[in-house]
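Researcher: Can you fold this with adenosine monophosphate in place?
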Amino acid sequence: MNIVLLGPPGAGKGTQALRIAKTYDIPHISTGEIFRRAVADETEMGMRAKAYMNRGELVPDEVVIGIVKERLEGPDCAEGFLLDGFPRTVAQAEALEKELSKSGRELDSGLDIEVGRASLIKRLTGRRTCRACGKVYHLTFDPPQSATTCDACGGELWQRDDDTEETVSKRLDVYEEQTAPLIDFYNERDLLVEVDGERGVDDVFSAVKQLLTA
Ligand code: AMP
């Protein structure tokens, strides 16, 4: 199954992606994670991406497209993949379509998780992640016992640099301007699958499974 996950920042793409990848046994490719790892490793690409990410802007298309193209050539992607956070512009979606067609592949679904702006702001600004094990908490909806320490491993909890209120607002504007047009793009191709992401994680995942296997 070849899937792209659409939906604004904070819709729960990463959380659902982990479950989808496990259930359908396909690799989970998160461009945001690839960039965060490159920033942590202080690679040249990471240093370039960091400035855009911290401003809440998109990393230039040519950088992201190059990374995804290379990743999709991996043998583990031959039987399917789940792209999380890519494409984010029409140019990226067109590049993906072209790249897949070169190897006789095509997308099966563009899965859009829908959540309103007020909920997204609450979700993103309250998010905390463990530096050590990557577990994600929310200060209100899924609070750790201490705001600074991971319950699971004792690691330090941190707030992503781009989850501050000002940057979140910018990221949501960027989503509306540059990424939301992909809903029409995939609708026109009869690939769009929409799910209400305002519900709990388990309910959203049940709906996702039903829609993907329908
Ligand atoms: P995410 O973890 O998906 O919210 O991504 C975090 C940040 O990484 C975004 O706000 C962008 O700055 C950058 N990024 C991730 N994916 C893309 C993409 N497909 N195109 C451009 N920038 C991206």
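Model: Folded with adenosine monophosphate in place. The two ends are 13 Å apart (CA to CA).
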